[in-house]
Amino acid sequence: MNGTDTSARSPSVVSREADARFRALAARWGLRPENRWIGGSVEHAWRQTRHVFEHFGLPIEDARVLEVGCYMGGTATVLATLGARVTAVDVDPASLEIARVNAERYGASAIRFEHVTDLAHLPFREGEFDAAVCYGVLEYVPHAKLGRIKAEVARTVRGGGVIWVGGTSGRLWPREVHSRRWLTNYVPRVVDSARAPTRAPQRGLWPWEVRRGFGPCENLDFLDRGERFLAAARGRGMGSAKLAALRLGIPLGRAVGIWTGLLLPAMSVRLRKKRA
């Protein structure tokens, strides 16, 4: 589905039994079901990422899509609602347990959820998927493994398939978008060796850490001059002033080989894997 209005098909909770199980699971893990990132994760993804998939660069309906780091299952459920055949993985078994029940709440029981202990070793065939989605996840993986993880994600996508990195915190900005902390993006990683791993500050990624490492790929946002990116931004309700600034910034960045979506606080880029 590209540029199609699917608002009439927005997901809603259809199983009270699964909803009760979801709330019990969330409480067991100390999570608040009413939180927008927990119980509201599907609605949030519908408002945000759905518009990207409607302007994706390949038809989402019936596409084989891998979601890397599915958390509460919000994006996976939206993809399934749009007709994709979704495989969703995460390193956290607790998140997967909740995500599976969360999807059941919305009737998206066909999603294949899999626990993967190491994202640098995915249990899938080469070229098994038409697309891979990395939404708000690459900034959380062990930084030393980032390159291997990107290469492994690319391995699972067929030639001509699409890799989307979105919602990833940009390290250019003084305030990290997830933790909302000031200046942690500018703290060198070398200082982490003196801290306990759990106390290392949350940071974003540099633009080149997102763009590079997926192997031979074309930047789809460059190829269409940002039109699908802007269409998705309009769909999720971006204000006219911000849209105007983006429309001005895209050709300026393109002239010097920089995709504007990688300069934002929450980065976004669509890459198409080149055919062999």
Polypeptide structure, described:
With 276 residues, this protein is an alpha/beta fold. The protein has one domain: Rossmann fold. Helix content is 33%, strand content 17%. It contains ten helices and seven strands. It has helices at residues 16-28, 41-47, 49-54, 74-81, 93-105, 146-155, 207-211, 220-223, 227-235, 240-255, and strands at 64-68, 85-90, 112-115, 129-135, 157-169, 217-219, 266-273. It has a seven-stranded mixed β-sheet with strand order 3-2-1-4-5-7-6. It is globular, with a radius of gyration of 18 Å. The two termini are 26 Å apart. The model is unreliable at 1-8 (pLDDT under 50).
Any guess at the CATH architecture?
Answer: 3-Layer(aba) Sandwich
From the N-terminal CA to the C-terminal CA, the straight-line distance is: 26 Å
What is the ordering of alpha helices and beta strands?
HHHEHEHEEHEHEHHHE
CATH uppermost class = Alpha Beta
CATH superfamily membership: Vaccinia Virus protein VP39
What percentage of amino acids are in beta strands? 15-25%
> What is the count of β-strands?
7
Tell the overall outline: globular
Mean pLDDT: 93
Number of domains: 1
Which structural class best describes the helix and strand composition?
alpha/beta
Find the CATH topology: Rossmann fold
Helix content: 25-40%
Q: From the alpha-carbon coordinates, what is the Rg to the nearest angstrom?
A: 18 Å
Quick rundown:
With 276 residues, the chain is an alpha/beta fold. The protein contains 10 helices and 7 strands.
Key attributes of the depicted protein:
33% helix; Rossmann fold; alpha/beta; seven-stranded mixed sheet; 276 residues
